[in-house]
Write a structure and sequence with these properties.
Elements: H1 2-10, H2 13-29, H3 35-39, H4 48-60, E1 64-65, E2 74-75, H5 77-86, H6 95-105, H7 112-127, E3 130-134, E4 142-151, E5 154-161, E6 166-171, H8 179-193, H9 198-211, H10 218-232, E7 241-244, H11 256-271, H12 275-283, E8 289-291, E9 305-312, E10 318-326, H13 332-355
Antiparallel strand pairs: 1-2, 3-7, 3-10, 4-5, 5-6, 8-9, 9-10
Helix pairs in contact: 2-4, 6-7, 6-13, 7-13, 8-10, 9-10
Length: about 350
């Protein structure tokens, strides 16, 4: 950070203004910025030749680059980082964006995964980027378990967690189950599940059935064992990284190299690789963090930028993250407060559900 600050302090007012206007124009249009364009916006009246000389100096410092001969300049990754750290003006969330996000979070969705999916879709829509929402790991304490018979060969297990998450899992019940045996099985599980997470209940269920065999009849016991067997062999836990708005990344993309970059990003998102590292990115700093290009270790091959913020539960523990990913010319000044606001809302809502 000190080195970046030194670079900025070494620039005179003219060079600093040229640099700032090149970056702001690039973030707005995505196009290289020429000297003649800047002659119309500079505070000081300067010739195009003078501005070109300043641009060359900034290029020598590694802050600007020339993608094509005589095609103007664009900021380098180093230049964008300097701008974001030192010159970026972050405003508050626009009233319209705030209303849209508030509506998404009060949509009445009872299932946390459905709610976060709705939040992710809304975040993508208002930022015109791809949104990433990492949902909490389901290691919360179980609040309630219920069996719902659907047909002779189908039943639903409803799991309600203390953090507000509701999960429905389909099982094939043993033959002969009745509404009474399902109630008995649920009552038995609720009695021994108090204060336990699902993984803890899985580990203790066999011993509990053996020691309390007289408290539960054979039909209910078979249902409990059948349900837990299904839960244990379910495979991967429900999708934790929710990605929406991939199509936004293709908008205004015409260059072959840009399309290839987006395809690499899509591949990374489809594989949902390194989900734990995604949370690490958010956990390693307070509030919103910005990763530009190759700084973003998850999606570095695509040269994308990531704006990410963690959200916390009522105990101030980080349990998930919210982010927006897109090209390096993201509108950082607008997206940073939106991501921050969304993360705070999600944390507050999940904390309230957990106390409910």
């Amino acid at each position: 950070m000190a080195e970046k600050s030194n670079i900025l302090s070494d620039l005179n007012d003219r060079s600093r203004e040229v640099f700032r206007r090149v970056v702001e124009s690039y973030l707005s249009s995505g196009d290289p910025v020429g000297s003649r364009t800047l002659t119309r916006s500079m505070t000081e009246r300067l010739s195009a030749a003078t501005i070109r000389n300043v641009m060359q100096d900034l290029e020598f410092l590694g802050l600007l680059d020339s993608p094509h001969v005589s095609a103007g300049r664009i900021p380098t990754q180093q230049g964008l980082r300097l701008f974001v750290d030192s010159l970026l003006e972050v405003g508050s969330v626009a009233a319209e964006d705030r209303e849209i996000m508030d509506a998404a979070l009060t949509s009445g969705e009872k299932d946390v995964t459905s709610l976060l999916d709705h939040v992710s879709a809304t975040l993508s829509a208002i930022t015109n980027g791809a949104s990433l929402v990492l949902s909490p790991k389901q290691d919360a304490v179980i609040r309630h378990i219920e069996f719902v018979g659907l047909a002779a060969d189908r039943a639903l297990v409803v799991l309600v967690f203390s953090n507000g998450h509701v999960e429905n899992r389909m099982i094939t019940p043993p033959i002969g189950q009745t509404p009474a045996s399902m109630r008995e099985a649920a009552n038995f599980l609720n009695a021994i599940a108090e204060g336990k997470t699902l993984s803890e209940l899985r580990r203790s269920i066999g011993q509990e059935i053996a020691s309390r065999r007289q408290e539960i009849d054979s039909l209910a016991r078979e249902l409990v064992e059948s349900g837990l067997a299904i839960w244990q062999t379910k495979g991967d836990e429900p999708e934790r990284l929710i990605v929406r708005g991939r199509g936004n990344l293709l908008a205004d993309t015409h260059e072959t190299q840009d399309i290839d970059r987006i395809r690499r990003l899509f591949d990374d998102l489809e594989r949902k690789r390194d989900i734990a590292e995604f949370l690490d990115l958010a956990e390693s700093g307070e509030g919103v963090r910005i990763f530009i290009g190759s700084e973003n270790k998850l999606f570095s091959l695509s040269g994308s930028s990531l704006v990410v913020s963690p959200y916390m539960n009522a105990d101030r523990q980080i349990i998930g993250a919210v982010g927006v990913i897109g090209p390096t010319r993201l509108n950082y000044g607008r997206i940073v407060p939106i991501v921050d606001y969304t993360a705070q809302l999600v944390g507050k809502l999940l904390s309230e559900r957990g106390r409910g």
